[in-house]
Amino acid sequence: MVIDPISDMLTRIRNALNAKHKVVVIPSSKFKLEIARILQEEGYIQSFEKTSKDKFSYIKIDLKYNKDNRTSVIKEIKRISKPGLRVYVNKAEIPRVLGGLGTSIISTSKGVMTGSKAREIGVGGEILCSII
């Protein structure tokens, strides 16, 4: 049993990037699918798909590397809000990751979205993670 499924997802991606894997498979949920969708839209992963095996469903994520095929596009992926310490912000306090070069993923009342989109719409929420 996993206590924090989002942290588990980010750790699996981080470990796969460190091991230079092309693909990582993680247990599926709607929330994780939304995070994977944002990662693909922002250009941090190549693609993702939901697959099923037996009674369980999984997300297969194709990781993205630079042209030299040695360094990953994701330099750092870090969990901000944790089960023991939730981090909520209003629309004025949404952080800019590395001056706008990185991305933050926020869970809002309007759904899961990037920090820049939440700022544009004018909603706050829980900061899930930051990606550089």
Shape: globular
Percent range for helical residues? 25-40%
Number of strands: 8
Kindly report how far apart the N and C termini lie. 29 Å
Helical/strand content category: alpha+beta
The quaternary state of the protein chains shown equals: single chain
Give the biggest sheet. Answer: 5 strands, antiparallel
Order of helices and strands: HEHEEEEEEHE
Which percent range describes the beta-strand content? 25-35%
Mean of the pLDDT scores?
95
Mind telling me the C-alpha Rg? 15 Å
Low-confidence stretches: none
Number of helices: 3
Q: Layout of SSEs?
A:
Elements: H1 5-18, E1 23-27, H2 30-41, E2 45-53, E3 56-63, E4 77-79, E5 88-89, E6 103-108, E7 111-114, H3 115-121, E8 125-131
Antiparallel strand pairs: 1-3, 2-3, 4-8, 5-8, 6-7, 6-8
Task: Describe the structure in your own words.
There is one protein chain. The chain is α+β, with helices and mostly antiparallel strands and 132 residues long. It is 25% helix and 33% strand. It is built from three helices and eight strands; from the N terminus they run αβαββββββαβ. Strands 4, 5, 6, 7 and 8 form a five-stranded antiparallel beta sheet that branches. The chain has a three-stranded antiparallel beta sheet with strand order 1-3-2.
